[in-house]
Every structure is written in C-alpha cells, then in structure tokens.
C-alpha cells in the first residue's frame, strides 16, 4: 500500500464504529480514491449478463471502478473481458456502449484488434522495428473473469478469493431470483434505464435494501396503494426481515409476507405458478412468486430489486451512475414479462412511484453530510435484538439496521487491509 493509502487506512478505523459512521466516508475525495484501489480494483465486480452479448462479436462497455473494460464474445463464442485501452497510446479502443464487431479499431492511430483481443496489425508498420511482434501487443485481459448462472463478474486483481467464495451466502438468494424463470434463465433484453444521482455510491445499497424503514415516510403514498391492492398489513412488521449475509452482501427477505389480494390471479399468472410448482415443488414456487422476490445487494455494485437488476457505477465521491435493467424470465407466458415491465415502469421508471423519491432523498442526504456540526450518522436501530448467525451474518426486523452495521464493518476491513 502506498504511504498516502496507509495513512488513510489508519483513519478508517476512527470513522466507523459498531453503531455509527462518520460523515467523511460520504464526502472525502481521498477516501473515494482509496475505495477504488482497496475495493473496486480488488474484489469481484458485477459487469454484465450473458444475454447482453448473445451473438459472436457482441460487446458491451463497462467499468471496474474507474477502469474502462469491454465484455466481448469472440468469434469463437467465448466471452472475454479486456481493459478498454489501446496498447499504443492508451486511447479507448471502443467508444460505443454496445454493439457487434469482428474487430475493434482504435480511433486515434488505427491500431486494430480482433474480437479475441489479438492485435491484427499496427498501422503504417514499415517504420516499426521488425522485432516488434504483434502477439506482444494484444488487448490486456482483465486478470480474473468468472460467471455465476450467466452473471459475469471480473476482478482487476490477479489474486484473491474465488467468485464462489465471494458470493458466499448471497448465492442462495441469487438462485431464488434466477429460479423465478422455470428454465432458470433470465434475459436482460428489455433495454436499460440510466440514472445519475449527485450522491455517494454507498447511499444506493443503503437506500435500496431498506424499504421497511424509509418506506413509511418517502413512499407512504405508494405503499398505501400497493397494500390496498395486495391486502398486506405492512405495519404488522412480523413478516419481513433484513439480513446481513457476510461479505458485504445484504438482503431484504419477503418470503414470510402474507398477501390477501382482492383480485384473483389472471390465467397467465395461474399457468406460471403451476409451471413453477411442477418445476420446483409447491413450497419453493410460493417463495418464487412476485411479491416474495427478495431485494439483494451483492457487494460492491450489484442489486436486484423486485423487477430489475441495478448495476452501480461510482463516478466521484458525490456522483454515481446506476443502470436499471428489467429482468425478463425465460419460459413464462408473455403476459408475465409484460407485467414485470409495467410494474417496473410504474414503480421504478423515471415517473414511477418509488425510484424518483429515493434519488431525491439520496441527493438531499449528500447535502446533509456536508454539515459538520456533529459528524456521526447513527445506524443503531435494533442492535439489542439482532440475531447473530454462525457464519457471522445477522437477522433483524424489517426496520432494523443490522445489515448496515455488517456492511460498514466489512467496508472498514477492506479499506484498512494491507
Ligand atoms: Fe425507497
């Protein structure tokens, strides 16, 4: 670790306590740089789903922290991840967000690479020494790439734990999300909704895995409407849990929630539930049906929220991009996927009932942490009653903050490790 990084690492221990965090973790640009080095450039980062690059030559541009990368399916069908940087003078070899290409040509001096990453040839190569071998100038692969059920993750560090170890207890809940398709297959083919908010990246997981508490205030109208339709009594509190899953991962678990919908299910929904029951058995089929879908955060940049996957991209200490991609299910009646899209639009779309309020509240939060009179943010709700599990995870009531306490302890460990 560099000297500056070491100095900051010492301070981290003073900024995070079991039940509170210091405002500096949201607003200090030096800590943001350290987060990129210590977290995003070391751990497994979610990049894309297989279904975004279905054909040979398909690619999407992504980032690992601040480092630009390309996820591309070569003409041999293999998905590879390269740093998006020409080996000549470091220009982006790919400037489009997505597309299909047999070759990638750097716009600056025309160096051209195959979709396997090999340098086809430098341009005007008569002046290069004959000993220059194009094999030595291919695009640089990202050191580690692994998939989990079609979800592509990468790590910019050559060493570290495997993806399986990283996902840990979160795997069970990724399965619960992906098994909502009776074929166990999802498609991120419905387009992407890009959001930019002027607040720190860590506010997004804190806000997304916490409907129980803030929902009573900033989503009061929407929750009232949903509950009147589903017959749910949200204030009963007994049915919803927040969990810290270790590894920085967090969960809102709705499997115990009782719904008493006033409308009978449509024909398509009945058919869907029957297929789920046949595939997975009655009990699991219940957990897989729409209202029971969990909200899951896979550290540090993946979220699943009811209808969609969120991929988070930090920009600076007080600016973040987040990409919402509705999650369509393979092997279901078309009406089910149409329902997912309509619910997505009305809840999470640009004029939806939920997301615009969350974005607004995070931006106000970022302004709030600039006030330095009393620096500590308090996350102590339910600390006396959290249930600690053998693996180090915790379970709390729906409005408790045990999951946030777990997240911050994990963050402190990563930020201060050598
Ligand atoms: Fe919210």
The overall pLDDT average reads: 94
- Alpha plus pi helix count: 13
Helix fraction by DSSP (H/I, runs of at least 4): 25-40%
Sequence stretches where pLDDT stays below 50 over 5 or more residues: none
Main sheet, how many strands, which sense, barrel?
A: 9 strands, antiparallel
Secondary structure topology:
Elements: H1 3-15, E1 16-17, E2 20-22, H2 24-27, H3 29-40, E3 45-49, E4 58-64, E5 67-73, E6 79-83, E7 98-100, E8 103-105, E9 112-114, E10 119-121, E11 144-148, E12 151-155, H4 163-167, H5 170-178, E13 186-187, E14 193-197, H6 203-208, H7 211-218, H8 220-230, E15 241-244, E16 250-253, H9 267-280, H10 282-288, E17 295-298, E18 302-305, E19 308-316, E20 319-326, E21 328-329, H11 334-348, H12 355-368, E22 376-378, E23 387-388, E24 394-397, H13 402-416
Antiparallel strand pairs: 1-2, 2-22, 3-12, 4-5, 4-7, 5-6, 8-9, 9-10, 11-12, 13-21, 14-20, 15-16, 15-24, 16-17, 17-18, 18-19, 19-20, 23-24
Fe (ii) ion (FE2) binds at residues 207, 211, 214-215, 218-219, 354, 358.
Give a written overview of the molecule.
- The protein has 418 residues and is α+β, with helices and mostly antiparallel strands.
- 32% of the residues lie in helices and 24% in strands.
- It contains 13 helices and 24 strands.
- It has helices at residues 3-15, 24-27, 29-40, 163-167, 170-178, 203-208, 211-218, 220-230, 267-280, 282-288, 334-348, 355-368, 402-416, and strands at residues 16-17, 20-22, 45-49, 58-64, 67-73, 79-83, 98-100, 103-105, 112-114, 119-121, 144-148, 151-155, 186-187, 193-197, 241-244, 250-253, 295-298, 302-305, 308-316, 319-326, 328-329, 376-378, 387-388, 394-397.
- The model has no long low-confidence stretch (mean pLDDT 94).
- Residues 207, 211, 214-215, 218-219, 354, 358 line the site of fe (ii) ion.
